[in-house]
Amino acid sequence: MSEEKKKKRIKYLNRALLNHKKVDLNFLKSVTFLGIPREYKLRPLVWKLLLNYLPPQVSLWEQTLKENRQFYLDFKKETITPKISQLFDKMFSPNGLTSFEENEISEEIENEQNENFLDKETFYLLLEMYHDTLRTWAGDGFFANKNGKNNQNKTSMTKTNNKNENEKKEEIKQIKDITNDKGSKEEEDKGKETEKEKENEKEKEKEKEKEKENEKEKENENEKENEKEKEREKENNNSEKEEDNGTIEILEQNHSRALCELLFLHSQINKGVGYTQGMNDILAPIYFLFANTNVKDKQFADADSFFCFVNLMSEIYQFFCFEIDSTVEGLNAILNQVEDGLKRYDNKIYKRFKKLEIAPHDYCFRWISLLFSQEFKKYQLIRLWDSLFADKSRFQFVISFSIAMICCLKEKIMKLGFGEILESLQNYPKDIPIGRILRKAVDVSEKIKKK
């Protein structure tokens, strides 16, 4: 984003947020959808408004925050009992909870030898949350335990199609055979062509050459645009590193413990949904943003994160509730919308997927259920979530963005086989600028609406 655009965006954000008795949410959404500059310090406030934690009436903000933060403290004190706190102390001590200690506690609970400890259900729930917390943003450092523990494994939320290596090789061989057969047939046909047919063939060749030149020009333009995007993201990454140098010192607390406590508290206040692996990835960006802010609210990062997370989960609970997967609201229905949208926006990719038997479950199950939280770096993700939270259709943009991610890999998809395509989709390339995907997603939204 150019300096001029940043200044203009900040001006509009200030106009939306400041000097009003009531925030115009529609105007705020319109501005936020285009992205909030990273240096803008009021992004946490924007998210609190868009996630319905704060009301539009400015006069109610102070009282709302005061009451909610007090409720959080009371609820935390009541829910995290001394027994649970004792386990958290062990888990998030400098050495963490060792495998030996895990097994020892498990045996005591299974044999009901430790009456002063936790009940079985709570212990195994906390243990699951603990391990998921250690996996959160692996390698980033922000959620690493005090001893630096951070598991590198990704959350597995992808249903894959089982084609083995031999099948892939056979597929490539068949494609080569077909290509060779076509070449031989063309040679035979050329010998039988009349002069008129040869002239037509030459005309077609000229047209193809023109098309290739046009495609090359487009590719060059895209490459130039990508280079610009990459330069911008490189600058952002450099500033990200600078910001991160001070991140850990902002709160004198263990971020991984805070994350785990918040997950447990949510599971207790919303027992209908409970806890499912992956919720940690949804909570992490919210907590990071609030804990990494330089305003006075940083000391209330856990309380504010709790309410924003509860509100967000109430809107996307169907992504984690497998009982309603096949209903109109369920994840399967959303995946079907992705497939239908792809068919309307880019029929070539759609047909390619159908031919190779690549279904939406194979690649975008995790994308959507985790709101893309494992596909992008944290600041790219936060930029994306600006648009998702500001979406006036409330998360319909998730569908358009998924289609855009696919279309940004069109060149690979049209050339590669089953295995290579899935590899690219399931481990999305980090060198594709988020700005490019977002622009494509807007184009997808507009064109699908017209059809």
Automatic annotation (TrEMBL):
Q: Which residues form a coiled coil?
A: none
Q: Which InterPro entries match?
A: Rab-GAP-TBC_dom, Rab-GAP_TBC_sf
Q: Which Gene3D superfamilies match?
A: putative rabgap domain of human tbc1 domain family member 14 like domains, Ypt/Rab-GAP domain of gyp1p, domain 1, Ypt/Rab-GAP domain of gyp1p, domain 3
Which GO terms fall under biological process for this protein? intracellular protein transport
Which residues does the annotated region (Disordered) include? 145-247
A molecular function annotated in GO for this UniProt entry is: GTPase activator activity
Show the ranges annotated as biased composition (Basic and acidic residues).
162-240
Comp. bias (Low complexity): 149-161
Stretches assigned to the Rab-GAP TBC domain: 37-392
- Please give the name of this protein: Tbc1 domain family member 13-like
According to its UniProt entry, this protein's organism is Anaeramoeba flamelloides
